[in-house]
Fold:
Amino acid sequence: MITLLLTLTSVLLLVAGPVMIAQGLLGRRSVAQELTSQRIAFPATGLPAPLARYARAPVRTGVQARAYSQLIADHVARATGGRTYAEIAEECLDTGRGDERLDRLRQTAFMGETLRGALLGAYQAWQVSILVTGLGALVVLIGAVFLVLAAHLP
Structure:
């Protein structure tokens, strides 16, 4: 009975593992394709020191998307004096929405934070695809161990 359960479990794991690996790799490729289609590239100059290695590089990976989102965050912080969209929107409401400069600043903050959020979403999807691929490999390994154990039981 134990041999049968181990064998069935190993077969299930040996089928599920490669499916997980394939889905993880497909997810990673999908994120890369989407980022590539956006034609985002780091500027050649003016990057902060931690991002200097990305000069002129196109954004094609989740890690690069995260780095570019940091660049956007820096630009938005400089443009808004460190204020967030929510803070600027509240100021707009308090002043009665008549200040064009404040309205433009609110729009800048909104667009910057929205773009940053989309890039961070791509980074998170990239990380999840790595996790799924790794877990798929682990599931295959466990399935193989169970199969070996089942073969060596009386």
Observations:
- The chain has a mean pLDDT of 94.
